[in-house]
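User: I'm preparing a small set of examples for a lab meeting where we compare how different chains pack in three dimensions. I only have the primary sequence for this one, and I'd like the structure in C-alpha cell form so I can line it up with the others. Please keep the answer compact; I'll paste it straight into my notes.
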Amino acid sequence: MAIAQRILSGDPSRTSKLYLVIGAISLVKAIAVRDDRNRFRQELTDAGLFIGIGLALRKYSQMKAEKRSEIESQVPDWALDAAESAAAKEAVRTAAKRGLRRSKSEPEPTVRDRARGLLPNR
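Assistant: Understood. Below is the C-alpha cell output for the 122-residue chain.
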C-alpha cells in the first residue's frame, strides 16, 4: 500500500509512465484474448483509459515544468539564493514543526460538537 501511495503521489511524469506501461500491458492482453469478444472489449477499454490518463499526466507534467521555469525566470537571482540558503531552509522546517505541534495539541471536534455548531444558539 505504501509503495503504491508513493508512486501515485509523487512526480506526475513518473506516474504517467506507470499508467502508460499498464495501458500497454492491457493492450497486449486485449490482443491475446481477441477471440473472446467481451474480454477483448474490456481489455481494450482498460488500455484506452490507462493510456489516456498517462498521456494527460504527461501533458500536465510538461505544463508544470514550463510554468516552474517561467516563474523561476521572473525571480531575481538574489532571491533564489536566499531561498536556497541553509538559514531559509531551517526557518521553513521550524515553522512546519511549530504548525505540526499546534495541530496535534488541538483535539479534533467530535460529531456532537460539529452538530451543535450547526444548530442556532438558544
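A couple of notes for your slides: The longest helix spans residues 37-74. The chain has a mean pLDDT of 80.

User: Perfect, thanks.
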